[in-house]
Amino acid sequence: MLLHDTALIYGRYLRQSLRSRFALLFGVLMPLLYLLFFGPLLTGLPLGGRGSSWQVLVPGLLLQLGLFGASYAGFTIIIEKSQGVVERMRVTPVSRLALLLGRVLRDATVFVFQAVLLVLAAVATGLRAPLGGVLIGFGFVALLTVSLGSLSYAAAMKVDTPQEFGPLINAMTMPSMLLSGLMLPMTLAPAWLDVLSHFMPFRYLVDAVRDAYVGSYTTAHMLYGALVAVGFAVLAVTVGTRVLRTAGA
Amino acid sequence: MPDGFTTPLPAAQAARQGPVEAVRCVDLTVREGEILGFLGPNGAGKITTLRMLTTLLAPTGGTASVAGCDLTTDPAGVRRACGYVAQSGGADPNIGVREELVTQGRLYRLSKDQAAVRAEELARDLGFADLLDRKVGALSGGQRRRLDIAMALTHGPRVLFLDEPTTGLDPGSRADLWNLIRRPRDAHGTTVFLTTHYLDEADALADRLVIVDKGVVVAEDTPGALKLRHGGSIDATLQDTFLAITGRGPAQADAAPVSV
């Protein structure tokens, strides 16, 4: 039943996304601008990792895509709440978990698609990375989207207007990006900043993807990154489902 | 054994100012196949009661059973047995009418083919078969209401809950909708539970009325009996009867459109 329900919800929202070119491409603009206009500045700098500056930057950009894109996913549910769509679905026997999973899997699909576009653009600007590493990178984008999307939908269910929601998300995404070492690796940071960044889950994800992009698949970074990504996703989906189950008034 | 539901349901709703008791103690029994009108001034607890009965809100105490299923131990059963038409509808304006109907059917566990057939059937019965290929947003207020009712009837529920079904509609559409509301009960014995601010609607449609005020039931009987007891005579208006019972008028009927 869960599979059937999830597929049903996923299909509905994917069809909606496919109808709107804007919805499909919106998230990729910011990382693309960084790729094209910030990336070239890094090619001569000593960034401390193995591989080219692109192999350090692009993993960060992929996660930036997931971070900024998925955090705003909740907007759509605020609109649906005002149209009565969410309530209407909650009255049916459809699984609450499916209501969430169908949506976040649609978001993951859209953002992995955008991630592919970003990587293709990066290859054009000079990125060379092993295919396995690139695929692992997409996997982390998908997991990050599921996590942040779930939390975004949960937050959006608690908020009544888009005007309240935007500032809330804004306040969280920029510091998260800066504190996780997404733009430049935290190995360049002074000790206090490095320590602070270890409290950000995204730090572990970006370290893992940077290792994947130089072909090191069996490192400690990879292990921690995978554990954090999966753990975060499970936690976020649990929270999101709970909110959909108990949201009232 | 009366089928339908009994609900003594105190519920506390947490608001930013602290707990607000929207429903203090609503005790009622609805008989199978009757149309029950649920009336009350603003803030009486009508919406909250409706949302508890359709499993959207968890009651903080009391028991209820809808169509034989207990609300707290078998919410899935309640969901299967009831249909709900909210005041704001619930169809996505950007999606086609047919797609919304079919998806709704599948949410109620009909197969893809069954859902498609059911969509056609409902559109025919409710008079919007020619609109199936339009977007929901292109429908007029009255047409939207028909679609909302169709979506709630997709799975042939035993109980239909309607929240202010004709608010915001023009008089012609209202009369049409009244006929549509009577049909599930007349044809299939569906129990109908509706809230309304329109006293003429309550008078015309309801077999029995339940009047709530400040979270408790203050009167319960057929419209005629209520008029006799509280309004003075059987020819009293429901307006005067209502005023006599609650001490003030019903909430202002909203002239604004139902959906934005």
Keywords:
heterodimer, A: 249 residues, mainly alpha, B: 260 residues, alpha/beta, Rossmann fold, six-stranded mixed sheet, two-stranded antiparallel ribbon, 18% strand
Description:
The complex is a heterodimer of chains A (249) and B (260). Chain A has 249 residues and is an all-alpha fold. Chain A is globular, with a radius of gyration of 18 Å. Helices cover 76% and strands 0% of the residues of chain A. The mean pLDDT of chain A is 91. Chain A has one domain (2-246). The longest helix of chain A has 30 residues, at 96-125. By secondary structure, chain B is an alpha/beta fold. Chain B has a domain at 11-91 and 160-246: Rossmann fold. Chain B has a six-stranded mixed sheet, sandwiched between helices. Chain B has a two-stranded antiparallel ribbon with strand order 1-2. In chain B, strands 4-5 form a two-stranded antiparallel ribbon. In chain B, a hairpin with a 2-residue loop joins strand 4 and strand 5 (69-70). In chain B, helix 3 packs across helix 4 (112-125), helix 5 runs parallel beside helix 6 (171-188) and helix 8 crosses helix 9. The chains are: A mainly alpha (249), B alpha/beta (260). Chain A binds chain B through residues 1, 5, 8, 12, 15-16, 19, 80, 82-85, 87-94, 246, 248-249, and chain B through 13-15, 48, 51, 54-58, 76, 79-80, 82-84, 86-95, 99, 103-104, 106-109, 151, 259-260.
Report the structural category of chain B: alpha/beta
Counted beta strands of chain A: 0
| Number of structural units classed as domains of chain A | 1
SSE ordering of chain A: HHHHHHHHHHHH
Overall pLDDT confidence of chain B: 83
Main structural class of chain A: mainly alpha
- Secondary-structure element order of chain B, N to C: EEEHEEHEHHHEHEHEEHH
End-to-end separation of chain A in angstroms reads 28 Å
Question: Which chain pair shows the most residues in contact?
Answer: A-B, 23 and 36 residues
- How many distinct helices of chain B? 9
Q: What share of residues are in beta strands of chain B?
A: 15-25%
The largest β sheet of chain A comes out as: none
Under the CATH scheme, the architecture of one domain in chain B is: 3-Layer(aba) Sandwich
Per CATH, the class of one domain in chain B reads Alpha Beta
